[in-house]
C-alpha cells in the first residue's frame, strides 16, 4: 500500500493550517485552522473489505504538571505516551481518499460528534481527555484535531498517519471508540498498512 498526506512529508514539519495551534510570540501559541490534510491511499491488497485511519503522536508527556507553565520546561527525557489525533474506522472498501477539511475545519470548542460519517465511523481522539479540565473546551472530540504539543516541550513531536487495509467491513466498535481499542480490534485483520510521519513543535527553541 501507499499513502499520501498532502503537505505532510516524511520527517518534515507539518504545515500550520493542519495544526490545532501555531506559535504566537506574545501568547506562546494561538489556535490555528485545524483542517485535516487530504489523505489518499492506493495499492490496496485483494480481499480488502474496509479501512481504518489513525494519527498518533508517541511523544506526549506522561506527566503534565509542567506542561505550558512559564519558567518551566518539559524535559526531552521525560517518559512519553501515545496521543491519538484521529480515529476513523469502518471506512468503506471503495473509499480511497479523504479531502482536506472534510473531517475537520477549525477548532470546535467541546469537540465534534462521534459516529457515522460518509467516510466511516468517527471515534474519539485524545483531546477528549486532555481538555476535560477546561470548562470552556471540555467535551468529546471526534475525528481529526491537529498537533498542539506543549509550547515548553524540549522534544520534537512526531505525528504518524496510518491507513490500514482490513479483511472486515466493521471492527464492531461503538460509542466513544478510542485509539487503543481500535489497535486491539484490528489484530488479526490487517492485510496491509501504509504510514507517513510529520513533525511539529510550538517551542521556538526546538
From TrEMBL:
CDD domains: PEBP_bact_arch. It holds the Pfam family PBP. NCBIfam families: YbhB/YbcL family Raf kinase inhibitor-like protein. PANTHER family: PEBP (PHOSPHATIDYLETHANOLAMINE-BINDING PROTEIN) FAMILY PROTEIN, UNCHARACTERIZED PROTEIN YBCL-RELATED. This is PBP family phospholipid-binding protein. It comes from Alloalcanivorax venustensis ISO4. The lineage of its organism: Bacteria, Pseudomonadati, Pseudomonadota, Gammaproteobacteria, Oceanospirillales.
Amino acid at each position: 500500500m501507499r499513502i499520501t498526506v498532502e503537505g505532510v512529508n516524511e520527517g518534515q514539519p507539518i504545515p500550520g493550517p493542519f495544526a490545532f495551534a501555531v506559535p504566537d510570540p506574545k501568547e506562546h501559541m494561538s489556535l490555528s485552522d485545524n483542517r485535516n490534510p487530504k489523505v489518499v491511499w492506493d495499492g490496496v491488497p485483494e480481499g480488502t473489505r474496509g479501512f481504518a485511519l489513525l494519527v498518533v503522536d508517541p511523544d506526549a508527556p506522561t506527566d503534565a504538571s509542567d506542561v505550558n507553565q512559564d519558567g518551566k520546561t518539559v524535559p526531552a527525557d521525560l517518559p512519553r505516551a501515545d496521543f491519538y489525533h484521529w480515529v476513523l474506522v469502518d471506512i468503506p472498501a471503495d473509499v480511497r481518499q479523504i479531502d482536506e477539511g472534510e473531517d475537520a475545519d477549525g477548532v470546535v470548542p467541546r469537540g465534534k460528534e462521534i459516529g457515522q460519517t460518509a467516510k466511516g465511523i468517527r471515534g474519539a481522539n485524545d483531546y477528549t481527555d486532555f481538555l476535560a479540565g477546561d470548562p470552556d473546551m471540555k467535551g468529546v472530540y471526534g475525528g481529526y484535531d491537529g498537533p498542539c504539543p506543549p509550547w515548553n516541550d524540549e522534544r520534537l513531536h512526531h505525528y504518524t498517519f496510518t491507513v490500514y487495509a482490513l479483511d472486515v467491513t466493521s471492527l464492531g466498535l461503538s460509542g466513544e471508540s478510542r485509539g487503543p481499542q481500535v489497535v486491539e480490534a484490528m489484530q488479526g485483520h490487517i492485510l496491509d498498512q501504509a504510514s507517513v510521519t510529520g513533525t511539529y513543535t510550538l517551542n521556538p527553541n526546538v
